[in-house]
Amino acid sequence: MTTRGTLALHSAWLATVAVIVTFSLAFASVRCGGDGGDGGDGGVIEPPRPRPAGTLRLTVFELPAHGLAVAIETPSGALHFVDTGPKSDDGHAAKELLAPFVRARASPAIASIVISHPHRDHFEGARHLLKQFEVGAFVDAGMQGALVAGDYVDLKKTADNRGAVLREVRAGDVLDWDPALEVSILAPPRAGVISTEKNFLNDHSIVLRIQHGKNVFLLPGDIERAGSESLLAAVPADRLRATVLIAPHHGFFEERAFAGAVKPQHVVVSCQAEYDDKEPRSPGDLARSLFEPVGAAVWVTAWHGAVTITSDGEVCAVTTARVRR
C-alpha cells in the first residue's frame, strides 16, 4: 500500500512543495488505503492528473538505468523533451516511460527534442520517439568529430528524414517555446570550452535557462569543472540564480562556486541509488552535501521516483512518486 502526505516548505520566494505519495506506472497513480507497505490489492488506477491551465510543468523521470530524460509542458500545452534517457539491458526509457507519457496527453505530438550532449544516456531514447510521434524540431549544440558516436550522427539523419527541423544552438541563442516563457541558451560558448578529452562532450553540454514569471529553471546537462567555470565567467550572476536546478552530471559534481552562484531552492538529481565504480558511490548524498548548505531541497529520482515541478509563475509545487523510505 502507499501513503499520501504533503510537505510545505517556505523560502524567500515563498515556494511551496507538495510531496504526494503514489505508486506510478507510466505516470498514472495508484491510490491504496492502509498504513504503508510495498504494495497490495485494491488499488484504483487513475488517469494522469491534468496540468492546471497556464502553468509550466517539468517532469524528471525515474529511469531504469543511468541517464536523464526531462519532459517540459509549456503554459500553452506544447511538449518538449530535454534528453531522452538510455536504452540498455536494464530497460528502454523511451519505450517504457516517455512514449506512454506522450500518449497520455490530449495531443500526442512533441514540439522539440533537445539533446544536451551526444552521450548515449542522454540521446538513445530519441530514436524511438522520432519513430512513434511527430517531432517538430531536433535541437543540439552541433558537436562533431571523433568523440561523437556514429549512432548519434545516424540519429540526426533519422530526425531529418522524419521531418524534424534540425537546429544547432550555442550561448546567446533563444528558443521560441511559448509567449509566457523566456528560454535561453547559456552554454556552450561559440568559441568552445577548454576541457580534457574525457570531459569534452560533458563540458560542451547545452545549458538551458527557462524563466516563467518569477521562477527560473536551469538545466545544465553534464557540465563538469571546466564547463561550470566557463559558465560562471560568461554569465551574469543574476542570470544564473535559479528556483529549480537539474543537478549537473547526475549529481557527480562538486563545484561549490557554481552551487553558491545558482543558489537553487530545489535540486533534482537523475541517478541510480549507488554506483559500484564511483567514489562517492551515492550521487544523491553528494548532491545533498553540495546544495543543502546553500538552502536547496534535494530530490533524487532513485529515492523519490519521478519528480514533477509545476510553476504558476509565482510559486513552484514539487510532487514526487514516493517518499524516501
Name the assembly state. Answer: single chain
Radius of gyration, taken over Cα atoms and rounded to an integer in Å: 19 Å
End-to-end gap: 13 Å
Uncertain regions: pLDDT < 50 for 5+ in a row?
Answer: 1-47
CATH fold title: Metallo-beta-lactamase, Chain A
Physical arrangement of strands within the biggest beta sheet: 11-10-9-6-5-4-19-20
Helicity, in percent? Answer: 10-25%
Largest sheet features: 8 strands, mixed
Number of strands: 20
Overall number of structural domains: 1
Structural class: alpha/beta
> So how many helices?
10
**Average pLDDT score:** 86
Short description, anyone?
With 325 residues, the chain is α/β, with parallel strands linked by helices.
Could you name the key traits of this structure?
325 residues, alpha/beta, Metallo-beta-lactamase, Chain A, seven-stranded mixed beta sheet, 22% helix, disordered N terminus
